[in-house]
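Whether sequence alone determines local backbone shape is best considered at the level of individual chains. The sequence in question and its structure tokens are set out directly beneath this paragraph.

===
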Amino acid sequence: MARRSELVDRLAAVALFARCSKRELQIVARHAETAEFPAGTELVVEGEPGDAFFIVLDGEVVLRRGGRKVGTLGPGDYFGELALLDPAPRSATATATTDVRVAVLGARMFRTLLRELPSMSERLLSGLARAFREAGGTAF
């Protein structure tokens, strides 16, 4: 299992969680599960509903959209954070290219945390707004 302090640090680097307090990040980390998958495993599949967020702890994951490689992720990288907020279809398939170990936070657990920590909602929205602004988004 990943050291919780390591996971807290990695969560702090995720735009969605960047504005959360250390205490909130510790609670989120405590509720994330660690999972291991062999090389070749599809962690998420393009077009299927999203229901979890992943942080790569060890190994490598390749992202493909429409069968075309669009990225490679390694330790500290993450994917699926929007699935915590919206169960829209996944925009890419994530496949382990090596044996991988990931931290997983399911959408159901995330919603439970939001109910138990209502102050976290404002920080999450702030983090999303900042990421949107930095990505060049415009809001009126």
Remarks:
- Strands lie at 33-37, 42-44, 52-58, 61-65, 68-73, 78-79, 93-96, 100-106.
- The helical segments are 4-12, 22-31, 107-116, 118-134.
- The chain has a mean pLDDT of 89.
- The domain at 4-134 is CATH 2.60.120.10 (Jelly Rolls).
